[in-house]
Structure formats: structure tokens, C-alpha cells
Amino acid sequence: xxxxxxxxxxxxxxxxxxxxxxxxxxxxxxxxxxxxxxxxxxxxxxxxxxxxxxxxxxxxxxxxxxxxxxxxxxxxxxxxxxxxxxxxxxxxxxxxxxxxxxxxxxxxxxxxxxxxxxxxxxxxxxxxxxxxxxxxxxxxxxxxxxxxxxxxxxxxxxxxxxxxxxxxxxxxxxxx
Length: 176
What we know:
Elements: H1 2-21, E1 33-39, E2 46-57, E3 60-71, E4 81-96, E5 99-113, E6 119-132, E7 138-147, E8 149-153, E9 166-175
Antiparallel strand pairs: 1-2, 1-9, 2-3, 3-4, 4-5, 5-6, 6-7, 6-8, 7-9
């Protein structure tokens, strides 16, 4: 199981690094960091996120999102506490006036803990959406469709209800 998680993380990091190696880097001329809260989306219920613009090619950008979530209780799994980590590279196409169309994919790693048996859930989620990210400091907004596909679920989670569903993630925060 840990081998599967390690391979998924390495694949995401290699994809980001390979993409960077094939394009000519342009200095980023805008604020690059955003912190935001996302409801629903690939965090299932919510997530707290940090997003960084990491590469620029002409007017388009690549960003990397790192998200965390904690759920003290889940329907049908009330004896579990859930901790999650989200890794999501995104390609941002400039639509003008600080608006972007974003295409991304994420790996969400969830660890469900109870007194008897810890379980692991790994989800893949592509993202199609739009975001508003100001050139300078200011409010950050994103909305996107995030269908969820399970890559791995321990036996205790075989019927996990979030699997194979499409979520509409809505994020609000700040860019600095």
C-alpha cells in the first residue's frame, strides 16, 4: 500500500518537473502565493489549501496546490477520524483581467483512524474550472468540477460513498 502511495506522489512530482523542463521559463510578474478554504471538491467536504504559481510561459502558468483536511466524523464511518493530504498540479490558461481557466489533476491521500483498524484511501481527481487570482494582493476565488475516482481503498472502505462522484469545489481565500 505504501508503495502505491509513494509511486503516486513520485508520478505527480515528475509530471510537474518534466513539464518545467520542456518550456522556457519567464519570470513571474505577479503575486504567487494563495491560501484558501475549499468546500467540497477533491477534499470531499472541505480543505485548507496553499497554492503557488511555480512556472510561467508567456501568459499561462503552472501552479501546485497542497491541501490538508481533517474530519472528526463521517456518515457510516462515525468511529473514524479522517486526515487528508491533497497534491494537485494545475495548468492555468490566462483569460484576461486576472481570470484563468484551470486544468489539473490531484491525488488525495486519506488516512482513516479508529481504535481498531487504520484504513487508507487514495483518490484521483481531474479538475476543470476557473479561478480569479489578482495580479497583486487581494481576494482569491476558484470553482471547478472535480470528479473523484478511487485508486485504492482498504477492505473496510470498499463501499466508500464519495467514490465515483463529481463534486463542484468552491474556494475562497487571499493572494499575497
